[in-house]
Design brief:
This protein is about 70% helix and about 0% strand. The chain has 19 helices and no strands. Among the domains are: about 110 residues, no CATH class; about 80 residues, Serine Threonine Protein Phosphatase 5, Tetratricopeptide repeat, CATH 1.25.40; about 70 residues, Methane Monooxygenase Hydroxylase, Chain G, domain 1 (Up-down Bundle).
Length: about 400
């Protein structure tokens, strides 16, 4: 049984909860549904769709009150807006076909069912929405490959039914899954790239920006120190941060700035742009640290803090001593949160970097003390390369001390 509503429905094309609402058969519904599916909100909403407009405005109670009628579609929309186990249980019991499958998908999403339905009773964007839930369920079972396959099928169904925003959202999720869950950045970059190419001009800027971030992060893993590849990463991140701002998307803003800095720091140095790139990297890392803190994002904070300290050591400046002083303090803050019993090599690397900054400042005794601690940690972990690097720095510090004493 198919839905008795205009198609395609804008499922997944709008923020929650509006993105799960159905547009009923009513004057103006078909045109509005088609427009919303590609990202165009009407200037004037049909009266029968007041519940969607109110939900988009954040007035969920008003939206529920505005749902007209008592048929199954109206019952479904009220359940989306006000929830309640009884409402979903009633819908699951009394509906079948596509609406029944949507109701069971929603019941799964709120924890009432252990497994979402199959897509056998659904088509197009409805089947794609169910496929998204099935991908989430597969991840709960630890089946990353299965989740990727569900998302691939769902995005194809959405695209084929005239729901490009839903298709792009599903491809965004799959791109992130390919990179993070399956360790395949090349496929992840391709997935995000194809999604961007298929986006209509009317697509929300946030969706395009999130896809640019996904493409950039995947390409960054493949870029190494290739300048051209890194410039493509920088281009994506620079565009994305114009949309994903600190006040609206703080975590993404921080990730963008962190990765933008890394892209600049990875570029081969040796031309007149070095100072500018390092300056941009430092600014970006400082921006990320406005969001990342030891309490909220301990891992990301520590990585960003160390990268900032490293960048400050090599930033050409008339205030080099000030930069080195700051770098020493940044390393010290990270060390205060690190346990050398748990991560001896990580602590040793930070101590080595800190000693390098202290050596440039001429604080040779402190530099030597930190290098000796780092050497013990590297040796205990069997890191011969770390021991060798420390020995080289110890020799440099000894040379500097000898020159000072002989002056």
């Amino acid at each position: 049984m198919t839905l008795n509503v205009p198609r395609p429905q804008p499922l997944g094309a709008l923020p929650w909860p509006a993105g799960m609402l159905l547009l009923p058969e009513a004057p103006g519904s078909a045109e509005t549904a088609a427009a919303l599916a590609v990202g165009n909100e009407p200037d004037e909403w049909p009266e029968a769709l007041a519940h969607v407009r109110l939900a988009l405005d954040g007035d969920v109670e008003g939206a529920a009150a505005a749902v007209d009628g008592d048929d199954d579609v109206a019952r479904y929309n009220r359940a989306v807006l006000v929830g309640g186990d009884e409402a979903w249980a009633d819908l699951v019991a009394r509906t079948s076909g596509e609406l029944g499958a949507l109701a069971r998908t929603a019941a799964f999403s709120v924890g009432m069912l252990d497994e979402p339905p199959t897509t056998d009773e659904a088509t197009g964007e409805v089947a794609a929405t169910i496929g998204s839930a099935r991908a989430a369920w597969a991840l709960e079972q630890g089946d990353v490959v299965g989740a990727s396959e569900e998302l691939q099928e769902a995005s194809a169904l959405a695209a084929g039914s005239g729901a490009p925003l839903l298709a792009a959202s599903l491809r965004l999720t799959r791109s992130e899954l390919l990179r993070e869950g399956l360790g395949d950045p090349r496929a992840a970059a391709t997935e995000a790239d194809e999604a961007i190419k298929a986006l209509p001009l009317s697509a929300p800027a946030e969706l395009r920006a999130e896809l640019q971030v996904a493409r950039a992060l995947a390409r960054q893993e493949l870029a190494g120190d290739n300048r051209g590849a890194l410039l493509a990463v920088v281009a994506d991140l620079t565009e994305a941060v114009k949309v994903l701002r600190e006040d609206t998307h703080p975590e993404l803003f921080a990730v963008i700035n962190q990765q933008l800095a890394l892209a600049y720091l990875m570029m081969p140095m040796g031309d007149d742009g070095d100072r500018i790139r390092l300056g941009v990297a430092v600014t970006s890392l400082r921006a990320a640290l406005r969001v990342f803190t030891p309490q909220t994002h301990p891992g990301a904070w520590a990585t960003t803090q160390v990268n900032l300290a490293n960048a400050l050591q090599y930033l050409p400046s008339a205030h080099q001593e000030t930069n080195l002083d700051e770098a020493v303090q940044l390393y010290e803050e990270v060390l205060s949160y690190r346990d050398e019993q748990i991560d001896p090599v990580g602590v040793a690397r930070i101590l080595t970097n800190q000693a390098n900054a202290l050596g440039h400042l001429g604080v040779l005794d402190d530099a030597t003390e930190r290098l000796q601690r780092a050497r013990v940690l590297f040796a205990g972990a069997g890191d011969e390369g770390g021991v060798q690097a420390v020995d080289e720095l110890l020799a440099e510090v000894a040379d500097a001390r000898a020159r000072r004493e002989g002056a």
